[in-house]
Design goal:
The protein has 15 helices and 14 strands. The protein is of the alpha+beta class. The longest helix has 27 residues. It is globular.
């Protein structure tokens, strides 16, 4: 995503205000300003620029506007449990991953919680595509609330400007599973890709910027016949949700997840140039609250006996609705799925929430992978860490059973 370059004006203003103004800024914001990128395209910032920026996007209004997601008065408990014995050097793993935060919650207890990159439990780190799984859950809430009549409703039923486009006959279900068949390029290393370019698009007068860009895309294959990862389509889901609920996504997120799930801190959600939450990206939250979201999903999105989503919907969302050309893996409703029943939310540069219902396990991580946005080696190392945690939980259970 792109951010405005008026930050240079802010830098001048801060310098002119002198040392007192500089010292009044928190250390994350000072770190960002010290490493301010001259290229405002986040996908092509340096590692040190990302280190500073990922924790401060919502505190630098000259970069991007945001809305606050209010928390409730009573946080849900995350009690400490005994340290989980892991067959690996966690510090070395975190250093290799360039981890800002790593949490393991097992049976509702925190078994591991560590921080890096000078980040801590009070800071907010940006989610990137982990936000997609939040957006998916809000679709379930909108179905339960009657704002969306059916998952098989067409996109153009809710976004009239999509009539006549390649999305005219695409269903909400196909948007969530990324099987629309519409052309899209998600290459993070290509400055000319759709994911790099759509925020630069100049919209037609009176049309949402994203809608204006997406409705010009051509059809590549028939809807429902191919899976293709597309952040643009999740962003389109967000526009649809706002139209259906007649509420900003940040308000609906607070009402349906942030307050009921007992998040400890407020979150923020970055806005597009036309004032719409970027629903495929960019929720800033504390790592403990990302873990709470995982626990909320693990508990079936039920709080005090009240379900946020329709019966059976969450099972559909977190099991494979389509293949992704990777053995043992699939894609649900904005969740990455595994054939063993586990599933995950993932964001570029190492953000993630892994959920294992059988073992009652949630692993939340924030990072800034130093090589690329989606490095295969870093991703494989994270998968190996998930497996190591699962093995440790199994061995602990076997030892307890044998006593």
């Amino acid at each position: 995503m792109k951010f405005k370059t008026t930050a240079l004006v802010a830098l001048v203003a801060i310098a002119g205000a002198g040392a007192l103004a500089w010292q009044s800024l928190d250390k994350e914001t000072r770190g960002f300003l010290a490493a301010f990128p001259t290229n405002t395209d986040l996908l092509f910032w340096s590692t040190s620029q990302r280190d500073a920026a990922f924790r401060a996007l919502d505190r630098l209004p000259f970069l991007a506007k945001h809305r606050v997601v209010p928390a409730g008065a009573t946080p849900s408990a995350l009690p400490p449990g005994p340290p989980l014995p892991l067959p690996l050097d966690v510090d070395a793993y975190m250093q290799a991953q360039r981890s800002a935060a790593l949490m393991v919650v097992h049976n509702g207890q925190v078994r591991l919680e560590r921080y890096g990159l000078d980040f801590d439990s009070q800071g907010r780190w940006t989610s990137f595509s982990v936000a997609k799984s939040f957006t998916s859950t809000l679709v379930g809430a909108a179905v339960r609330d009657g704002h969306i009549k059916s998952m098989d409703d067409k996109v153009s039923d809710y976004i009239q400007e999509m009539k006549g486009s390649a999305y005219d006959d695409v269903s909400i279900r196909q948007l969530l599973t990324m099987t629309s068949g519409v052309a899209w390029n998600e290459d993070y290393g290509d400055p000319q890709s759709d994911v790099a370019q759509f925020n630069n698009h100049k919209p037609e007068a009176g049309v949402d910027a994203l809608v204006s860009y997406m409705r010009q895309l051509p059809r590549a294959v028939p809807a429902g016949t191919r899976w293709l990862y597309s952040t643009g389509e999740t962003n389109l889901v967000g526009v649809l949700l706002s139209r259906a609920t007649q509420k900003p996504l940040s308000v609906y997120l607070s009402e349906k997840i942030w307050v009921p799930a007992g998040m400890e801190q407020q979150a923020t959600w970055i806005l597009s140039k036309t004032g719409q939450e970027i629903s495929g990206c960019c929720i800033q939250a504390a790592t403990r609250d990302f873990a709470r979201f995982g626990q909320f999903i693990l508990n079936g999105a039920v709080v005090n006996g009240q379900s946020t989503v329709p019966e059976g919907w969450l099972t559909e969302a977190t099991t494979a609705r389509t293949g992704i050309n990777t053995p043992g893996r699939g894609y649900g409703y904005q969740w990455w799925t595994y054939d063993d029943g586990t599933f995950a939310a993932r964001g570029i540069f190492g953000q993630g929430i892994f959920i294992d219902p059988v073992r009652q396990l949630v692993i939340a991580s924030n990072a800034n992978w130093g090589t690329s946005a989606s490095d295969p080696a870093d991703s494989a190392a994270r998968e190996a860490f998930y497996q190591a945690v699962q093995k440790a939980v199994d061995e602990e259970a076997a030892t307890a059973k044998g006593r």
